[in-house]
Amino acid sequence: MELIGKNEDKKYKINLYEDGSSCLILSDGSVANPKVKIPTKNVDNFIFKDTLKLIGSVQKSSTISFIFESTSNGAIYNMFHSNLVQTLQTKTMENGIISGNWTFIKKGPGIGLILS
Question: Fewer CB within 10 Å, N side or C side of the chain?
């Protein structure tokens, strides 16, 4: 992961795990929100360049999210279904791998990745 800088368009704090992950896969296969587990760090939203590998999906109620793992540092990220559709309209994913400049977006109580 290469840090690009602060996200001046989407100025808000995001909660991340100490390893930089935005979500955690629990033993039952569900995804925990960073607000659920301590310790987390509360940081300004930022833009970073990374290559991600699609490792799964999770459905909560009527929401579907996709789970990605950073190939550079192993951090785990959530991407909302609608954001994955937008991403695939502009980027190519090959064998579950996709590269780009990423930032975070808030939707309700959750955060997810989006192309910056």
Answer: N
Q: Which domain holds residue 25?
A: 2-115
Q: What is residue 7's predicted lDDT score, i.e. its pLDDT?
A: 67
Number of domains in the chain: 1
Distance from C-alpha of 67 to C-alpha of 54, rounded to nearest angstrom: 6
Whether 17 and 37 have beta carbons less than 8 Å apart is answered as yes
CB burial of 53-66 (b: ≥16 within 10 Å; e: otherwise) equals ebeeeeeeeeeebb
Query: Stretch 14-22: mean pLDDT, rounded?
Result: 67
Token pair for 64: 């579907």
Q: How confident is the model at residue 34 (pLDDT cuts 50, 70, 90)?
A: very low
* Ranges of H-type helices in the chain: 81-88
Q: What is the pTM of this model?
A: 0.76
